[in-house]
């Protein structure tokens, strides 16, 4: 089966968010370390071994677990415009809010943010838990535009303002 050509548009990180523990409110940071197989340093309680991780590399798609979550700022804009639901970047509970790049085409693709290489695993569809934590109506408003779940292929530092570039090949 032939693969679709890789996406060519690049975008940028507009905000970066972590949470101390699962279910806690997220807080904004200007940069975070991305570690292969672990995710973002300090995000939720995964680093203490209390969260749904660890997992063996390559199992993110099957297990539903991922290292990093991303969402398009344009999806948040559309949620406000189309459904009257204003959601701040921190309230969307995704690690990275991005602008000027379509995330859905990055499923099964590698992309680079700064020096970090990630692989899109699957769409991050909104769930009842997100709606419960944040606001009713989110599931309908973010369906098929709730973001992307990704795994860290090559670690490094991700900073607000970093460019996001789809890679034409896997590294």
Would you kindly provide a brief summary of this structure?
It contains four helices and eleven strands. It has helices at residues 60-63, 73-83, 128-133, 138-142, and strands at 11-19, 26-29, 31-35, 39-40, 68-72, 96-99, 110-113, 116-123, 148-154, 156-159, 163-166.
Please outline the helices and strands.
Blueprint: E1 11-19, E2 26-29, E3 31-35, E4 39-40, H1 60-63, E5 68-72, H2 73-83, E6 96-99, E7 110-113, E8 116-123, H3 128-133, H4 138-142, E9 148-154, E10 156-159, E11 163-166
Protein model, in words:
By secondary structure, the protein is of the alpha+beta class. The chain is built from four helices and eleven strands, in the order E-E-E-E-H-E-H-E-E-E-H-H-E-E-E. Strands 1-6-5-9-8-7-11 form a seven-stranded mixed beta barrel. Helix 2 links the parallel strand 5 (68-72) and strand 6 (96-99). The radius of gyration is 15 Å and the shape is globular. The protein starts with 10 loop residues before the first strand and ends in a 5-residue tail after the last strand. The model is unreliable at 51-63 (pLDDT under 50).
């Amino acid at each position: 089966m032939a693969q679709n050509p890789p996406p060519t548009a690049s975008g940028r990180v507009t905000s970066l968010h972590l949470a101390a523990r699962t279910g806690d409110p997220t807080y904004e940071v200007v940069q975070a370390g991305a570690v292969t197989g672990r995710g973002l340093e300090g995000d939720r309680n995964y680093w203490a071994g209390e969260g749904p991780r660890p997992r063996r590399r390559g199992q993110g798609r099957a297990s539903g677990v991922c290292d990093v979550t991303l969402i398009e700022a344009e999806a948040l804009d559309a949620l406000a415009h189309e459904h009257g639901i204003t959601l701040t970047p921190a309230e969307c509970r995704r690690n990275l809010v991005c602008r000027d790049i379509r995330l859905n085409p990055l499923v099964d693709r590698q992309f680079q943010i700064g020096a970090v290489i990630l692989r899109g695993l699957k769409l991050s569809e909104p769930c009842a838990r997100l709606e419960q934590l944040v606001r009713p109506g989110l599931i309908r408003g973010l369906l098929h535009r709730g973001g992307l779940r990704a795994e860290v292929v090559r670690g490094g530092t991700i900073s607000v303002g970093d460019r996001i570039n789809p890679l034409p090949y896997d590294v």
